[in-house]
Specification:
Elements lengths: L1 E3 L6 E3 L7 E6 L4 H12 L3 E6 L6 H12 L5 E5 L5 H15 L4 E7 L18 H10 L3 H13 L22 H24 L3 E11 L11 H20 L5 E8 L5 H4 L4 H11 L8 H12 L10 E4 L11
Parallel strand pairs: 3-4, 3-6, 4-5, 6-7, 7-8, 8-9
Antiparallel strand pairs: 1-2
Helix pairs in contact: 1-2, 1-10, 3-6, 4-5, 6-7
């Protein structure tokens, strides 16, 4: 049987996983992680979600977890620091109990979004001469033109972004070595420790999938994104090593490169509104990628039919990355 995805019109498989199979999602309370949790739960996969949220945020998160439970799958959650190795071991102790007597981890998804978004040095003064020339040609004050452009941009008129007020960055807070190291570990190399320990405990299924998330920032320099970009590249490298060295244990490891998506993590990037506008103008479908788009692709990568995909970076962006000039 198949159903139709309302957003894309695509036929979706109704394949269900075994009742003994689990997904372990690191960073599963929002964005890609939460969307994937819902998608996998729809298809019968039990879930262990590790997240790090303040008490106030749980008012919105708990109803999402309850929706997952209503699908009839098992769900265990841990609001703890996934980057602490001692806590990691405690979580896996608890997960092993939940898996008993014969449950296995079919999917390990790394969706941790915890990084520093700072410039690496002072920003050069912005050149806004074109706006001044246009204002002069129209016979209006530059401030009037700027305010009109800002208002229209906020209302969704992407074409005026070049006339808007430039994004503001902290003038005296620059990326330090410790910021870089923590970000690379949190959003990149921490995948390895989790994968190694799950394997050591013999918790992986015979046909397991290890997955992570990257972005176009892995090859394009976005302001304030240097640490996260380094982390994403590290994550991709770790994934390739897992794909080769852990293949004998039945593990396939891949990275999904999502298009620009309006998530909480993206909104933390200074100038994110401009990133979204540029993505919409480039994308052949003239819209942003959604968490559901990415969750759908992750689900497909978890199916038995995707067992020969290993060590890859798979773009899920509707063609955004390959699109040339929009006009």
């Amino acid at each position: 049987m198949r159903t139709i995805d309302k957003g894309t019109g695509v036929n979706l498989s109704t394949t269900r996983f075994s009742g003994d199979e689990w997904a372990l999602i690191l960073g599963g309370s929002s964005g890609f992680g939460l969307a994937t949790a819902h998608k996998l739960a729809e298809h019968g996969l039990n879930l262990c979600i590790v997240h790090r949220d303040r008490r106030g945020a749980m008012r919105k998160i708990e109803p999402e977890f309850e929706r997952i439970r209503e699908r009839g799958v098992s769900l265990v959650t841990f609001n703890r620091d996934a980057l602490d190795t001692a806590i990691r071991s405690e979580i896996l102790d608890s997960l092993a109990e939940a898996l008993a007597p014969q449950g296995k981890v079919r999917v390990l998804l790394h969706s941790i979004a915890f990084g520093n978004l700072k410039l690496i040095g002072p920003e050069a003064p912005s050149n806004e001469g074109d706006r001044a020339r246009l204002a002069a040609a129209l016979g209006v004050e530059e401030s009037v033109l700027r305010e009109a452009a800002d208002r229209l941009f906020e209302e969704g008129c992407d074409a005026v972004q070049g006339l808007t007020t430039a994004p503001q960055y902290a003038p005296n807070l620059f990326l330090e070595e410790e910021d870089m190291a923590r970000t690379v570990h949190a959003m990149g190399t921490s995948l390895l420790g989790w994968t190694q320990e799950v394997l050591e405990r013999d918790l992986f299924a015979a046909d397991a999938r290890v997955l992570g998330l990257t972005s176009e920032g892995n090859a394009v320099a976005w302001k304030g994104y240097a640490a996260v970009a380094a982390a994403k590249v590290a994550l991709e490298s770790v994934s390739r090593s897992i794909a080769v060295e852990m293949a004998p244990y039945g593990i396939r490891s891949n990275i999904v490169q999502a298009g620009v998506t309006d998530t909480n993590a993206l909104r933390m990037i200074p100038g994110s509104a401009h990133l979204k506008a540029q993505a919409r103008s480039r994308n052949p479908f003239k819209r942003l990628t959604t968490p559901q788009d990415v969750a759908n692709a992750i689900y497909l990568l978890c199916l038995p039919e995707a067992g020969w995909i290993n060590g890859e970076i798979i773009r899920v962006d509707g063609g955004e990355r390959i699109s040339g000039p929009s006009r």
